[in-house]
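Continuing the batch. This is chain 6 of the set; chains 1 through 5 are on the previous pages. Same settings as before, nothing changed between runs. Recording input and output for traceability.
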Amino acid sequence: MEVTNNFGVPETLMSLARRDYYSKGNADYSVTELLAPSRVQRLRKLFHGHMKQDVSQMLWQLMGSALHVVAERGQAEGHITEERLFSTFEGVVVSGAIDVQQEEDDGVTIMDYKFTSAWAVMNEKPDWEQQQNVYGWLVRREKKKNVKGVKIIALIRDWNRREAERREDYPKAPIQVIDLRLWSHEEAEEFVRSRISAHNTGKVAIAFDEELPLCTDEDRWVRETKFAVMKEGRKRAVKLFDSEADAKQFAEQEKGFVETRKGEAIRCTGDYCGVSQWCSQYQATKGVEE
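Output for chain 6:
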């Protein structure tokens, strides 16, 4: 992938951006790759040499890399930082680098640092739960230790004190410890098996020049169309509706008006996958969604 510099960023920062701090070692899939949609993962491999990203768009990637370097230096009794584990399963090698393992007599608590937004903390992130529980599966398989909990340490980049004071559902501090649901070993193993199967399907499709498996609405981060009831002089919606008819009825009662907030596949339209320009699924729906 080519790193461009469209805004004259100093070469020292460009050097950092070009440097690949990440390595999955001698593995077929990292946990991150395993969780990615098989279509996205195949397209990334096919078009890696053609992909471009400007250094100005890599701020949080750089900050994340810096955090991991700093965190690795942190020492505390019973804590293991930045350990990469490998496991052979269903004919492939899966690896995962765990940020922090807190070891106690009754088991291990797995923690992962995330530079993230307040919105992400306030809403469900299934991929966080999936990632941490696959790490738990690795610990049980390879270290033969009980896993007693999985957590996210969220560093909230856009935290706002006023919002924290005003809203009940807003994070109360810029660093939040989030407890996630802990899966059984069997549940985690079945999930890993299903992800390997999905990626194998993608490999077969490429080998036989067939269409790649389609991304689901969940994969594409589809945001449904909403109808907002608004009032003059007010920036925030009075209420959001899934139905335009319900929104219009409520707007009449409130002497307001309806604003349509059109849905979209956020991952695709924002090119968060990095391969939307080569994706036939996105290109086929692009005109319709726009």
